[in-house]
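New to this. Explain the following:
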Amino acid sequence: MTTPEATGATGPPPRLRSRRVFAAAHVVADPHADTTPDGPAALDWDATLAFRHHLWAHGLGVAEAMDTAQRGMGLDWAGAAELIRRSSAEARAVGGHLACGTGTDQLPPVGASLVDVRAAYEEQLTVVEDAGAQPVLMASRQLAALGVGPDAYRDLYGHLLRQTTRPVILHWLGPAFDPALAGYWGSPDLDTATETLLGIIADNPGAVDGVKVSLLDATREVRLRRRLPPGVRCYTGDDFHYPELIAGDAHGFSDALLGVFDPLAPLAAAAVRRLDVGDPAGFRAVLDPTVPLARHLFQAPTRYYKTGVVLLAWLAGHQSHFTMAGGLQSARSLPHLRRAHELGAALGLFPDPDLAAARMRALLAVYGAEEASIT
């Protein structure tokens, strides 16, 4: 196993007060494992868990085994279950806030029935709740593949929500993040889908803590946010418009569950602390400059944003290599990665800028594209 070069402090994390903020955390592959892109993934557990401590030390919650952790793109359910158990134990040790993804990815991509989907969700919910974490009901590719209508979604989600022991976060991941999720909530029409989602929440009072909305459509998110029942949070998953959505307006604000807060953790925490003391202008001054990096990382095809996230973790010294589960380090071009380094350096994301520059030069050199201008 590798030894992480930068670890977060342990102990009770400083709490953020004005917003509930989760960073969806990436996983660190074991570069010495003899694996193939078909998996199963082999993780460097020491470095993976050290990165969670880094997030908790900044006062952020950790959203575990989510899309950023390559769920369904290199990390299978067996690996995700082990990750959930290990992260839950670490969270208990430091009092860190943890929410964990539950889905249906133990099923084959096609051919599952509604009964199979329900049983798969139940299996994963049991693992998360037994670990003591808050469940996130992730959108299911297998459910989307069935092409069922809104009534089937209301029946299935109602069945699951009646079983949970604590309020869950519902997850609406749009097709920009995963094309297999087109037509989720039983309709390709987003207005119809919104009505179904709101109906599920209304049918199950007290069972839903909030909704994570990842549609990259700020206007639609605000409209949904204003219609949520009292006490139900809107967690923005919009990695393009998060400063304005978290800042909010006269009618309310979004909390956050964001993959981009994995590399931006120090700045995200510093910004929210400005809100904690009633300084929205200071919040925007810290967070607005991060948007160009976010838009770069999440540019189409958006589902490959994980590659840039892991690159930045390597450049920042949180791991000793740029290797990903499933070989996903090859999913972005060298110009894309070089630009991510430039944008990250401009934001001061790298504790040791010389190390980051040396690593970027080494990466380019391996592929015959070394440029002396990297600084």
Residues 1-10 have pLDDT under 50 and may be disordered. The two ends are 30 Å apart (CA to CA). Residues 240 and 295 are 6 Å apart (CA to CA).
